[in-house]
Every structure is written in C-alpha cells, then in structure tokens.
Design brief:
Length: 83
C-alpha cells in the first residue's frame, strides 16, 4: 500500500542466489485489489512487472555473513535489467 505521497515501504528477506542472475527481488503492481479475510490479497490484472536489484556493496556485505555453494553474478555484470 502507498502513502498519500506515493511512497511505499516493504520488508523482505534478502534474496538468495540462482545461477546466472544478479541478486534481485521481483515485483508486481496492481491498479486494483482487495484484502481477503484470510490476510491475503486478490487482484484482477497486473499493470507492471519489475525487478529490484541491489547495490553490489550490499551484496558483498551479505556474502560475508553467509555461505553459498552457487557462484553469484554481480549486479554490475547482470545485463537483463538494463533497457
């Protein structure tokens, strides 16, 4: 949900890796939606699908505290998010 000024804040778990992609989170924007009784949401159509990429220095800091067996693609090398 957005504030009066169009700002949105969300909390997420830092994403893991998968082969061949930089660290990112997927997003979907809906123009209309409704809250369901069970705490989930329903929407009709997607207005935008996007991805949020992380600054490489943030990725490096997270790498220092977790161990992964997958070789990560760094954000500067990932080219799919550039248009």
């Amino acid at each position: 949900m957005f504030s009066f000024f169009g700002m949105c804040i969300f909390i997420a778990i830092y994403p893991g890796y998968y082969t061949g992609r930089a660290t990112h989170i997927h997003s979907k924007v809906f123009t209309s939606w409704k809250a369901n009784a069970n705490g989930t949401y329903s929407a009709d159509s997607v207005a935008h699908v996007g991805q949020f990429f992380f600054e490489e220095d943030a990725n490096q800091r997270v790498d220092n505290v977790r161990c992964n067996l997958i070789t990560r693609v760094d954000t500067d090398t990932e080219t799919r998010h550039r248009h």
